[in-house]
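Write out the 3D structure for:
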Amino acid sequence: MVEFRNVSKVYNNGTEALHNINLKVDKGEFVFIVGSSGAGKSTFLKLIMCEERPNSGQVIVDGVDVSRIRKGKIPYIRRRMGIVFQDFRLIDHMTVYDNVAFAMHVVGASSKTIKKRVPYILSLVGLQHKAKHHPNELSGGERQRVGLARALVNNPTMIVADEPTGNIDPALSFEIVDLLSEINRRGTTVLMVTHEHSLVKHFHKRIIQIHSGEIVADTAAMQEDVPEEQEPAVEEEYGEYEEGYSEVEVNEEYESEEADASYEEDEENFDEEEEDEEGSVDG
């Protein structure tokens, strides 16, 4: 599903965000990506989402080498994945229904398909009764569930979640990861970056720890090396990783202006089409 082959990434300011990364995530896995601030987690996700390119090595996503992919083909790669952001990134003037429908409109889904699919996805995340509400009328947990519904609506093969519980009440964090786990049980691959150690310990999933741009621990690799009767519990292993954390502050705030501009352009087009439809109805 995702494979990194000798991948390194150095930014223009000289910061080496990732150094010679090698790993493989199989289809249907649920993987927590952990590490201190500036460790390279965000860069790891951006390479998968084609927001950044590696300086060396190959990044394979769903069988496609995205390391040198042409810009025109990037949207087609992104359609295979659903992305959940820490800051929700909902469109304030749209209702919950329209926020989710917008994701389908962007990929060219028909009105009939949208009307059938969106209510189903909202019911899946428990928000069917909030369809006509706007984001500012929702709690943080509800807004993140809208974000999750939007990520799911196009039936992606993989969910990429970047700190999805970072801006919600800790008590609701488990609810969001429960939803991601249920999605994973249905066959969707999930990659989730998180700082919340309690979540990682509670959900028995694969854990990859990144430190100073390198993978320093991977429970999948550890369990392969240990005889079955001696395999340690995931939470015990993670406890050892936690002790080895060091705060490495590296500037990792590299925004993808191109992606945001494209999103805003799609939003404007969506609004214009909505106005045209309303005009034709009135006429």
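Strands lie at 2-10, 16-25, 30-34, 56-61, 64-65, 81-84, 158-162, 189-193, 206-211, 214-218.
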